[in-house]
Amino acid sequence: MSQVHTQRMGRLIAAGSKDKIDEMIDCLANLNALHFIEYDGLEEGFNLGSPKEEAEIIGRRLNKLRSAASIVEGKNPKKPVSINKVRSELDDSLPSAVESLLEKSTRLDLVDNQLSSLREDKAFLELISSLGLDVELLSGYANIASFIGTVNDLDPLKSIDTDNLLFTGYSKKTNVVALFVKNSDSSTIQSILNSCGFQSISIQENLQGNPLELLSKATDKINTLESEKSMIVDGLEMWNNEFGESLTCGLELLEREHDILTAPVKIAVSDHAFFIDGWVEMSRSEEVQKALSECCIFTEISPFKIKAGEGGHGHSDHSHNQEMPPIAYQDRNLSKPMELLTDAVGRPAYGRIDPTLFMFVTYPIFFGMMLGDMAYGLITISLGAFIMGQAGPNNLMTMGGKFLIYIGLGTFVFGYLYAEFAGWEIFPHGHSNPAEALSILYPPVDSHGSVWHDSFPFGIELAYPFHRVVLVEDHGNLENLVLLTIYLGLIHIIFGRLIGFRDVMFYGTDHGHVGVTAAFFEHGVWIVLLIGGFLFSYGFLGPSEAEYMVLPGMIIAISAVIMLIWTLFNYHGIPFAISLILAPIEAIGMMPSVISYVRLFAVGVVGVKIAETGNIKLFEPMVHAIEHSEFLVVPFLLIGWLSVQFFAWGLGVFSPNIHAARLHFVEWMRQYYDSSGEEFTPFGFRSHHVEVE
């Protein structure tokens, strides 16, 4: 099946004798092929199955390992571990080790709580120790109000009469006061204190005695507890180094076993039989039926067919209620990392085009157009290769590493086309630079730094190398790049609409419309609008010989707007009066989507200028310092230059990814994409760290 489609799915229904239910569950677990439709308990004569007796025991062990995993990170083994070895550790060393870990964690929590309390006591004692009063004397009076705190200014307190008792101190560059007054004077004193910037200190009621002695004891306890905490933290690290892999593998194995033991709760069971319902990939239908035939009396797999007009919306809130199958991607190799992008938006509805393969082509191109530097491409490729080397059995890390390699290759290729290396132009327009040595990678160039240059219709200018940061009048291609990005946006959006045209023609819309006519009004009208808008814009803004395009372009665009009014009224149910207003607004709204692709030019030029600034302000002075034997400043300039380069690369990896993702997710995919697909999650084993039996 084509890589632009998801897997064809079929509905499996199977039944068998109740005494074969365990055998059937083991069979499904080994197959890893059935996406369960869990029994809802509504059928008369059938009930939900019951988990096996061992499920409770395994569940308790699993919860302990999950608790341990929340304390330490665990470690991924370099290669899958023998299942016998994992079982042996689960029965032997790991349980006692987990108990020890949980005890350490409990003690660590207790120490943290004690440290928090003691630090509060210490902060309090450090302030009041300068007053020379025992802690219990600071509060607890019936007829006297006490004010204990800090003030910004002591002078206003001099006006307090001698009938009141004032103690002052100085701690941590702060004035500390303890003021004892008659209850009847408390309001007046409070006003005076407020004028001094008084901040009350909360009295620690659990303390009694001399503050200096208490402070010394609290400091000693804090030091002791911090030492103990450090030992516990080191112990946790040592535990993770010794048992981290065993924990990861044991957790995976117990998760498997728990899934099997609790699987009967997804199945309909009567007194004598069981019944299972779910989805399978049609490519594995014969394999599944053959395996289940040994434990099931009846099995049937029916290929799923979308009812016209209900395509892809089984998970929506619309009136159509056809139950849709989950979405499984095609088996991929090269383009598999791009599934990370598709999953970020949501899987496509069943029967719809899967954009993964297209993004495998366009995403590195868009990214490369923006970053476009051979040096940064090599760094990105190296980072991706390093991540892949460290991934081991971690599939997510492997895909992430491959993704970086792909965008790094795009960056390197466009860096070669742009003739750029670390922010330098290999064929500079002006003073020389170290990157000129890479000119050996190119055939001979003319006085403009070009191997080849040619003009094409609609103002397209292409060159090799393509000097993107130099103006046309200086023999560069900056303005040409702006125009190319707009054309690329136009083509990319039209392509998205063509995909939508195909989807509606075969599977319909969520409003129940299907066929060529519906596809034309849903998507073809927009293509007509884009073509008309392009002809009008080029005729109006382009060279004088293209002015003849203005009138045809205007007629085509206006015709498209009229048809769009009909689309909104007839196909979306919007009142005609509102459609008359809304259609022109939506038509004009297509313009920003196309212009948005100009970011392919703008983001890249900004990155080049950052690197170029570092080269001019830091690298060139460094070379000058070396030539004049000023070696003391060379290390500083070198570190500064490398910092700018890595900043430019880091920003280059981060920012172009955001913009490339936006162009795909927002500008392109919204033209056609339905992300209502549910992920296909088959029941069974997917080995990451433990070998499958």
Rounded radius of gyration (Å) = 36 Å
The average pLDDT value, as a whole number, equals 88
The end-to-end span amounts to 31 Å
Overall, the morphology is extended
DSSP strand tally: 14
Helix coverage percent:
40-55%
Oligomer: single chain
Determine the structural class based on helices, strands and strand pairing: alpha+beta
Provide an overview of this structure:
The protein is built from 18 helices and 14 strands. It is an alpha+beta fold. Strands 1, 2, 3, 8, 9 and 10 form a six-stranded antiparallel sheet that branches. The chain has a four-stranded antiparallel sheet with strand order 5-6-4-7, sandwiched between helices. The longest helix is centred in the middle third of the chain and has 52 residues.
Salient structural properties:
single chain; 693 residues; alpha+beta; Alpha-Beta Plaits; 6-stranded antiparallel beta sheet; 4-stranded antiparallel beta sheet; 18 helices; extended
What is the element layout, followed by pairings?
Layout: E1 9-17, H1 21-31, E2 35-36, E3 47-48, H2 54-71, H3 83-91, H4 93-128, E4 144-151, E5 165-171, E6 174-182, H5 186-195, E7 199-200, H6 211-262, E8 268-269, E9 273-281, H7 285-292, E10 298-303, H8 339-345, H9 356-371, H10 374-391, H11 395-418, E11 420-421, E12 424-425, E13 452-456, E14 460-464, H12 478-507, H13 516-541, H14 550-571, H15 576-588, H16 590-595, H17 599-627, H18 634-668
Antiparallel strand pairs: 1-9, 1-10, 2-9, 3-8, 4-6, 4-7, 5-6, 8-9, 11-12, 13-14
Helix pairs in contact: 2-4, 2-6, 3-6, 4-6, 9-11, 9-17, 9-18, 10-11, 12-13, 12-17, 13-14, 14-15, 17-18
